[in-house]
Specification:
This protein has about 950 residues and is of the alpha/beta class. It is about 45% helix and about 10% strand. The chain has a nine-stranded mixed beta sheet with strand order 1-9-2-8-7-3-6-4-5, sandwiched between helices. A seven-stranded mixed beta sheet has the order 11-10-20-17-14-16-15, with helices on both faces. A five-stranded antiparallel beta sheet has the order 24-23-22-21-25, with helices on one face. Helix 13 packs antiparallel against helix 16. The longest helix has about 35 residues.
């Protein structure tokens, strides 16, 4: 393995700096290279290769694999294209893999234009075009599935390009990249293209271990300089003092990911130039803090408010902060400074759509009449196949109006066709301002002159968190179009309370560590067993990057353990007591403290258990008094939740609000105070139904109706239960402590302080030892637990001599790929699909694919048919049982089946219009299309399972034909 790191120049060295002998040698090298494949490939390009590109291409030409880590926009894909060129010249196949379908579609179009449509194919989960071509673009999952199925398409494969390989850190899908790298035939050369990561050497060392000779080529250089700015009001100010570009502020060598350059003390480059935050920005921040403080204090005494008794600034004072520019004003400012086209990252779909609407409403136009004619023609061509009824629900006319003015949104909720049109118009310079979510930063080729970040925090599904330095680098890396722009610009909008030094800290760190997310899944494990047997499968898993990283970390942990053991010996000496064994006395003190804490925890656990039990006992129609939470007060139980580990029954409050209550809303066990009957015609989505039910509850409370008798729900839930054994142990320990000789020592508390230090360090050291034990063979141990679960379910059978063989059900599991692979297989096995027609098969498949956002999860809907209701019950019951087994075996839990797509997909399969399908849901058209395509992918997998009931196979194919229509059918490659 060879390693080449550090910044590389983007062009040839100035000949004036070379001696005659050096110029002659360089000329001879160029002549020699001209006769090679690399020379021929270079001749097809319109630009000179950068040093890092040339170096990587040479490695491929010499038969080596490569890891290329470089900033966004540096031209990594040229290395991938050279791998394809080598394959074509040598009569071999080349696969180009990407993490997302949009990037696959884009790369397919580029390569088909370059090498001809007959020579290039595309394979994604729902699209298959010319799959036997010499060059095939595909999502990484497709290649993984090919490897496990031992597909004939793998014949003559010579090169695999893994674009965006740093995606292996993704906790949901990242393992697929490692599976591919491990399982590809040894003769296949892999070109791995990555964003700049701080541990490229470590990742390259692993690639060298599993793939053979692999060169690591790291370029820290951006071919287009990137300038960092902050927009304060309508004024764009430099973030750093002086003439400082992104290349200059980044730490050399890509190390020190966790170190922020101290901004109070400027860091210097090789020439001794200091880098500091622009003092004007620091002044703005200081003034804002002072003005905010004065506005709170008012003109009177310290701590005194204005006459009005509120915190508003008094008249005549300075404004409390900088007036933030509106979105149209931001774009207009960029336009005036010739900084368009620009991508503005807004971490919200609604925010992106709102930004376009605001710009349109402001009367701002960024396009000429000629550009408008071209845009109108392309947009109308893209929409000509869309049924007129669907155009309105898709927001086509609003979208078209924004495009004509030069504005567009770009997010996952858009129709794929619309997104592709936006990408092409932006790349051609016709659309000047795109408002996008962070998904655009992932590989899609949409470079801009400027990138704007509205905020430096985002909602990650659970909480608002600051973006990381790696995310900042990925987002701002879009700025600066190679061959078009002389420089790129990153602009952060000023926020109230902004800290310029924090922004500078983000901008000063350009790399991030690549950490494996690999873990054995059911499908992966059973495929490994089928192909290699248990012993060899464990060896293969131990060769994963996850285990590689774990093994490396053990060395450092062992060093820490040795150092701490020496400190423990010193602490033990300092707590020696002349009256007796202080170690024994300290153990008694520790045991007493632990027992008291354990008793407290036990009481808390008992209380929570009683609360959970009381929630699980609630029935539809019970009226309860919720003591806390978001909406305290009386509420009617609409649906029980006795099957969950943490029950959260759905309720209707008396002010007609739907919500779920959990233990966080309770102060103690909850019991019904009265009970009403819920009409069969009740529909929680209809406001009148909610009002009527709330009125019934109010009447019942007024009349003091008792709750339903005979259900034993009005006891004290065991709140008076004592904990006699623990209380007795605490009393015994206190007596033993007082009777110990060291209890009377005059230096007892001094010894005790040393003892506490000893115990704390002992606990930490034992934790490190457990980490070492846990990290040794950790992946193989997980694999063993997965095998235990598969054996318990009958997918693996023990032959009696210690060997495991795959059962017929296990062979079926081998062909099911997805996060709920075992649940899908169990659903087939238990007959969930048996009594369904094609429409119902599609709807049930959605339950096994769809993942609702947390805030979108509501009441369980009534199913469209009795047979589908029965099928869903089978799936939900099996999921609950599987979750118990997984918890017992310390495995990650399979996601809960989601029912939110059942009705929309059922209606779609029955031929309803898109507007009818989406009516009453929170689904965006783009989301609906994306989920339907994933359902198509699952149905296609099921239809192709060897030995599956022929009737079910036919139904799966029929279901695919029913749902692959309209917007789903034409949302593919343009």
């Amino acid at each position: 393995m060879s390693s080449n790191t550090g910044p590389f120049s983007t062009g040839p060295t100035d000949s004036e700096e070379l001696s005659p002998a050096e110029r002659y040698r360089a000329s001879a090298e160029r002549r020699a290279e001209a006769a090679t494949y690399l020379g021929q490939f270079s001749g097809t390009l319109e630009f000179e290769l950068d040093d890092f590109q040339r170096q990587a291409c040479r490695s491929l030409q010499e038969g080596k694999g490569v890891l290329v880590a470089a900033p966004t926009g540096a031209g990594k894909t040229i290395v991938g294209e050279f791998a394809i060129y080598l394959a074509l010249q040598r009569g071999l196949k080349a696969f180009y893999t990407t993490p997302i379908k949009a990037l696959s579609n884009q790369k397919f179009s580029e390569l088909a234009a370059k090498y001809g449509a007959d020579n290039v194919g595309l394979l994604t989960g729902d699209t298959s075009i010319n799959g036997d071509a010499q060059v095939v673009v595909m999502t990484t999952e497709v290649l993984r599935n090919m490897l496990y199925a031992d597909s004939a398409t793998l014949g003559d494969l010579g090169y695999v390009v893994m674009d965006e390989v740093h995606y292996l850190a993704d906790r949901f899908r990242g393992a697929v990249w490692e599976e591919v790298i491990i399982h590809l035939p040894s003769e296949v050369r892999v070109a791995s293209l990555s964003a700049t990561v701080s541990n490229a050497e470590e990742f390259g060392a692993w690639l060298d271990t599993v793939r053979g000779d692999t060169d690591i080529i790291v370029s820290e250089h951006r071919p287009v300089p990137l300038w960092q700015h902050v927009m304060v009001g309508r004024r764009i100010m430099d973030l750093f003092a002086g003439e400082t570009t992104f290349d200059e502020i980044a730490p050399p060598g890509g190390d020190g990911i966790d170190e922020v350059p101290p901004l109070a003390k400027p860091r210097e480059d090789a020439k001794g130039r200091g880098f500091d935050v622009n003092p004007e920005l620091l002044d703005v921040a200081r003034r804002e803090i002072q003005q905010s403080f004065r506005s709170r204090q008012g003109p009177g005494k310290r701590g005194q408010r204005g006459r009005r008794g509120d915190d508003r600034p008094v008249r005549g004072g300075e404004p409390a902060g900088v007036r933030r520019a509106s979105r149209p004003q931001v774009i207009a400012s960029l336009d005036r400074m010739d900084l368009l086209p620009a991508i503005t990252f807004i971490f919200s779909r609604a925010g992106c759509e709102g930004a376009v609407a605001q710009c349109v409403a402001s009367g701002l136009w960024l396009t000429t009449e000629t550009e408008q004619r071209i845009i109108a023609q392309r947009v109308d061509e893209a929409g000509q196949d869309i049924p007129p009824d669907d155009l309105d629900v898709l927001g086509f006319w609003t979208w078209r109006d924004g495009l004509l003015r030069g504005f567009a949104a770009h997010h996952a909720g858009m129709l794929p066709t619309f997104k592709e049109v936006v990408e092409k118009l932006f790349a051609d310079g016709l659309v000047k301002a795109v408002f996008a979510t962070e998904t655009l930063a992932l590989g899609v080729n949409m470079p801009a002159r400027s990138v704007v970040l509205e905020k430096l925090d985002k909602f990650n599904g659970e909480a608002h968190v600051d973006i990381t330095a790696g995310e900042y680098t990925q987002l701002t890396g879009r700025a600066g179009r190679r061959g078009i722009d002389v420089e790129g610009h990153a602009v952060v909008l000023w926020q109230p309370g902004a800290d310029p030094t924090a922004v500078a800290g983000l901008a000063s760190r350009r790399t991030y560590p690549l950490n494996s997310s690999f873990r054995p899944t059911y499908n992966m494990s059973i495929n490994l067993l089928a192909q290699f047997g248990r012993s060899r499968a464990r060896e293969i898993l131990e060769s994963s990057f996850a285990q590689f990283q774990a093994d490396r970390s053990v060395v450092g942990l062992a060093r820490q353990v040795r150092s701490r053991e020496e400190s423990l010996a010193g602490y033990a000496k300092s707590m020696t007591c002349h009256l007796g064994d202080f170690t024994e006395y300290a153990r008694l003190r520790r045991a007493l403290s632990d027992a008291e804490n354990a008793t407290s925890r036990t009481k808390s656990r008992v209380q929570k258990s009683l609360n959970d039990d009381s929630l699980a006992r609630l029935l539809p129609g019970d009226v309860v008094n919720v003591p806390g939470g978001r909406a305290p007060g009386p509420a009617v139980v609409l649906s029980s939740d006795h099957g969950s580990r943490e029950p959260r029954p759905a309720v209707l409050t008396l002010d007609n609000q739907l919500r779920r209550i959990g233990t966080d809303d309770l102060e103690g066990p909850i019991a019904p105070v009265t009970r009403i009957r819920i009409p069969k015609s009740f529909n929680a989505k209809v406001p009148k139904s909610r009002r009527d039910l709330a009125s019934s509850a109010r009447n019942a409370l007024r009349e003091n109706r008792p709750p339903a008798p005979g259900q034993n729900r009005n006891h004290d839930f065991g709140r008076g239960a004592a904990l006699p054994n623990q209380e007795k142990r605490i009393a015994d320990l206190r007596r033993a402590l007082r009777a110990h000789p060291c209890h009377g020592c005059s230096e007892r508390e001094d010894h005790a302080r040393w003892s506490e230090r000893w115990w704390k360090l002992r606990r930490e050291t034992d934790g490190l030892v457990r980490q070492i034990q846990g990290r040794t063979n950790t992946i193989a141990k997980t694999f063993d637990r997965v095998c235990d679960v598969l054996s318990a379910y009958g997918y693996l059978e023990d032959t009696g001599d210690g060997r495991l063989v795959i059962s017929p059900d296990g062979q079926r599991l081998r062909r099911i790929y997805g996060e709920k692979d075992l649940l899908i297989s169990q659903s087939l096995r238990l007959g969930a699909f048996d009594d369904l027609d094609a429409t119902e098969v599609a709807a049930l498949a959605s339950v096994l694919v769809y993942q609702a956002k947390r805030e979108d999860r509501g009441l369980r809907p009534r199913m469209p048919s009795v047979s589908l209701e029965t099928a869903v019950d089978i799936v939900v019951r099996e999921w609950s049982a599987l979750e118990d087994v997984e918890e017992e075996n310390k495995l990650p839990l399979t996601g809960e089946p989601e029912l939110g797509l059942v009705w929309p997909l059922y209606k779609w399969a029955r031929g309803r219009h898109l507007q009818d399908v989406l009516s009453g849901t929170d689904l965006a058209a783009g989301d609906f299309v994306r989920w339907v395509k994933q359902v198509v992918d699952l149905l296609d997998q099921l239809a192709k399972i060897p030995g599956l009931d022929p009737r079910l196979s036919r139904l799966c194919v029929e279901a695919i034909n029913l749902i692959r229509r309209g917007v789903v059918a034409y949302s593919s490659v343009l």
